[in-house]
Input
Amino acid sequence: MNNLSKPLMLVLSSPSGAGKTTLSKKIQQSDNSFKISVSHTTRKARPNEVDGVDYHFVTKEKFKELLSKNVFYEYTEIFGNYYGTSKSSVNEIISDKCNVLFDIDWKGAQQLSRFKELNLLKIFILPPSKEELEKRLIARNQDGKQSIKNRLLSYSNDIEHSDEYDHVIVNDNVETCFNSIKKIISKHLKN
Ligand code: 5GP
Output
């Protein structure tokens, strides 16, 4: 089976605030063969987020119950909150004959990598610098001070895992970064 016959599992990871969510949305909007896998999380919804669209927002109790029922392909804990990809959200996308786009962290990417049969393409997005990341986190005004602090603290640990990915791209400019991702995808699909 070549890369054309299996749905593509595109994983985008990055330190929080590097622009991954914007890029994921752009990929989906520009190519309707891609659908974003909607994760479950115990994090509180931000004001602009919609349940079932951005995430399935659940309580910690509910998440643990789902975990015990083996509902997730992968999951992680970040700053005291759980995030996980349910098998049903991925299977729904695959049964629609679409490619799956994952916006997940490096721990989730490691877990998906264990499924050797998947047509996985993993891209790590880097911000131009830690200083720029801090500016972006403050400017997007979605996280409290402590949350921003936590996200910056995990930056060095996050980027240490970038060499586990097929490609690493610096998001200096969203359009340029987006075009690089598109080129990587089309090259991968031709192989
Ligand atoms: P945020 O709270 O900013 O939405 O997401 C925090 C981090 O959790 C991001 O790096 C995001 O990619 C990651 N994340 C979101 N959903 C999942 C998931 O289902 N699994 C894993 N492993 N990470 C996730």
Notes: The pocket of guanosine-5'-monophosphate is lined by residues 16, 39, 43, 74-76, 78, 83-85, 103-105, 107-108 (CB under 6 Å).
